[in-house]
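User: Can you predict the 3D structure for this chain?
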Amino acid sequence: MHTSRTRTAAEITDALRRAGVAEADDSPLARSLYASDASLYRVPPRVVVLPHDMDEIAAVLAVCREERIPLTMRGAGTSIAGNAVGPGVVIDTSRHLNRVLEIDPDARTALVEPGVIQSALQRAAAPHGLRFGPDPSTHNRATLGGMIGNNACGSRALGYGRTSDNVLGLDVLAGTGERLRLGAVPHPTAESPLLDGLRATVGSELEVIRTELGRFPRQVSGYSLEHLLPERGFDIPRALVGSEGTLALTLAARVRLVRDEPERILIALGYPTMAEAADAVPAILPYAPVACEGLDARIVRVVVDRKGAASVPELPRGEGWLLVELAGESSAALVAEAGRLIADAGALDSRTVTDPAHAAALWRIREDGAGLAARTPAGDPAHAGWEDAAVPPGQLGNYLREFESLMAEHRLTGLPYGHFGDGCVHIRIDFPLGAADGTRVLRDFLFQAGELVARHGGSMSGEHGDGRARGELLPLMYSPKAIGLFERVKGVFDPDDLLNPGVIVRPDPVDHAVRAAGARPLRRKELPTLGLAHRHDRGDLSMAVHRCTGVGKCRADTTASGGVMCPSYLATREEKDSTRGRARVLQDVVSGRLGPDGWRSPALHEALDLCLSCKGCSSDCPTGVDMAAYKAEALHQKYRRRPRPRSHYALGWLPRWARLVRKLPGLTPLANMVMRSRALHPLLVRAAGVDPRRQLPVFAPETFRGWFARRPTAPAARSARHGDVVLFVDTFTDAFSPGTGAAAVAVLEDAGYRVTVTGQPVCCGLTWISTGQLDGARRQIRATVRALAPHVRAGALVVGLEPSCTAVLRSDAAELLGGDGADGDEEGDADAKAAAEVAAATRTLAELLGSTPGWTPPDLSGTTVVAQPHCHHHAVLGWEADAELLRTAGATVERLGGCCGLAGNFGVEQGHHDVSVAVAGQQLLPAVGRAAPDATILADGFSCRTQLDSLTDRSGDHLAQLLARHLR
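Assistant: Here is the predicted structure, written as structure tokens:
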């Protein structure tokens, strides 16, 4: 066992830099970011290294061997068992070692670096008609090195095998420092004392290996030494797969590629219960499915509750389902085969799905399962402590019945699903880790569940590895001889126990270093200055920031399919700029790990600085993290009753300055002249905390309210066959873009509405929210809700034009005015009730028009629309109504994902310009660059249109303007 010498983190970092390691970081920020993966565990490293090449990994290992410092390899950090955290040096290969070095289409192989993302390898192989077989649900951020570490499988392992079935060669460094080129990699190692020792060790225990290891495909726990049997060719690369970085460090890998079958078909089978669905698996396996997945009604109900009924396609009758995928050359042959399979499956009901979009929607339920299952239907956190046990498929139904009984005995709940064709079940369980005896409950349950799996001849892990969650359970399924053999193999490769100690061999206790166990509640009772209600987290900020389980979807680029999260990470590719990274730092703040006043810590400032407050995570993150809200709360706590950055006054109080300009006659042209002045621009932007490369917006000559007050009432408005709507006149529409409001009035009156506005100017408080001035935001939104409520109670709907302001009415208003007595009096309760009424009555323009009886949109046939939905529109309001309206009108629409990059005050502030432009470059700028000259660039957000004006020679239109131009 390793015994680390006493070295400070700074001394270790200095040693690494002297050895030629360019990026070694021992800051509190780095230690916070890398202390957790996607598991229960928190183990802060002493130093984090981002190596640029293989030589740097060798240098890190040399320093760790000399100083006797533990060393852990990490890819995307999506390990669910605690495989990718360690107490010494953590190496993150995803930042720089992420190249596909070679594709050999004739041999059907690829040579990759360990940090290559699985989906990137798929893109590289696709032009050759090839793919890498294993496809875990984290395929768009999981790295090949991580997949090799835990022998990842995924939904289609039935058809394509596990990672170990697809690794042909490995280039590794053993813990001894020896470089081993094994199998089909360049310059393979011919002779090695280490390999001789391994052969001797294995040769002495052949009986143990033959009787205890490799009994069924999903037996992932322990070391896969069955690959070293003489009859299997002493295949060391395959044996190293799944060793979780405890034996060697992966420098490169040769992997097998397979031909992707041209046709696929999905069969959905319904059963009375999930266990009965599992009973049917043996009858299905003879049809050689590529995938056979199990779903339970409970998880489907969660999807419906959180994403709406439209997110779940029609399923067969039942409470448990199997999703069975067949692949082949001929669609007709697959349909015939599906018919035979259904006849043998004994299902209550079935659906054969040939539409790829329908099938993709069903698979999305499965892919987001880990995140969606992170909260129980009752709202309690659910954890990954017992996440992926597997039993032989013939035992699965009985195992599930006994497992459900065990859960009930412990008064625990969870949402099961999994790879039923392989006998593997995923579940997150509501262990009461915040309670005083929470870790004892965890420990007791894990050992009893382990005994249950062992009785059914199963494996503690079926694909995620043992890590810290299951290593201590291995004696439940292996004999002392097998455990001793694992220790001896570890001794051959890593005699000093430096590589990922505490995992598999001499494991740490399963209840050691549990992250959530250190989290204390942080409600208004504990923190009276709490600015938001955190309604969906029982008023507890700690519970809110601990929503993040680390599954890392925020590291994936989903913009091509309309996703937004996480624009700053996609721009910088740094963990600190991911939603997960920020959540980890916030978890340390609320747990007191970053000092008594963590809100003012440099680590938190650096983590939150590049957050655009886009709210993309609130809809795109499977666990519902809302980093924009957490950032607002953090800024509120940091600066409350303290001096703030200049931009908070200049930009955060923008509505106040706009009102001041409106009130003083003649001030508008003077203000515009000053803001346009080249001589004064540098002084103004410096005083305002604005980047000097940004142009300041100019005020419209006449406000919308001024135009609205003097306009004649249209005949259509007098008839008002659909009644009144109150137009919410936000600051941006009123002061800077009144033409948008005028266009909206024309469209609404044409649709048969009488348009009214509030008697006095109102503001949603958005700019106060985004700068963390939550007391000021509360005053603003309280006045707004009080102004709108009488209209709503008289039967009017509220129509918002600026998406971010509309989203405040629909969501943030309740956060500011609601909760456990934001004001502590009856007046506060009345405001909270009014906020709820206003939220229920608030509509986007498209939502209102789409639900208006008898209304048809103007003809947009022949119009090409490049649409940049505002991030808050996507995340809070939903853009589906807009898409449907444009489709009905006949427009050809290209919907962009991602963020425009300006994001309100973010892209204007000093220090943010480069990232703002980089974010715009992900989707918006390329799309505008290739758009035809006559295409309409649709951008409802004022900030999106401002970014277009700043970075392109094209202007954006609001939906109201597009519709108004085409009114009959």
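The radius of gyration is 30 Å. The mean pLDDT is 95.
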